[in-house]
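Request:
You are asked to prepare a plain-text protein record giving the amino acid sequence and the backbone structure tokens, at your earliest convenience.
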Amino acid sequence: MSSEQFSNSKHEQPQRFSSIPIWLLIVMVLVGGGVASFLLLRGIVWIVESIALYDIHTWEKGLQAYVRTFHEEPVRTIMLFFTYMGSFYSTVFVALSFSILFMFHNMYREGLALLVTTAGAWQINVLLKSFFMRPRPDLEFWTHASGYSFPSGHSTIAAAMYGMLFVIWSMHRRRRQLSIALPVICGIFLIVGIGLSRVYLGVHYPTDIIGGYIAGSLWLSACAYSLHLWRHSDEQRASIRY
């Protein structure tokens, strides 16, 4: 085979490798992530309602009563801080700020991925709440809350949006051959803190938090994989070009 034929074959390989456009593949992954969030959560709720509903309620009330015994300062202020970090306006501000920062550093894929993750997580949560329509706990609220209870919007957005931030941080550290332990630990601490604060403040059941984590994590997985596909496609085109 001549050098010219070999060069042409390299240019043709990506087209033979996949006939699906990258944008369509990403859309399929995102749609699949949203559908999977709903189906898995619906299945888990059905299992709980069918098998262990009474035990779950007993466990939830026990955990709620326990965490709310720590009502003195500075615990309440710390919990209010965590719940503020998961609020709508805070997460929108964080997502927009980091997206602008990423784009300023020519990280356009990461910036767009963060915006899509954030917007999608909130929309998925709205749809899930409208479907399940679970009332909030019959407790004294220590912060403002409205709407349905399941799944927790704070937990959904924490797992998805903050999760994507720490995924991007981990990817950046891995490219520099650094340990990803720091972003993983920080991510877990923040996400767990936001979820726990909602139970502590009396506005959610523990299972609302778990449901939010499940929905948010599935959506995060779809968005993170889409980002990976996009990066891989661009790197592949760049290697062919040069």
User: Anything to note?
Assistant: Residues 206-241 form the longest helix (36 residues). Residues 1-17 have pLDDT under 50 and may be disordered. The chain is about 80% helix and 0% strand. The two ends are 21 Å apart (CA to CA).
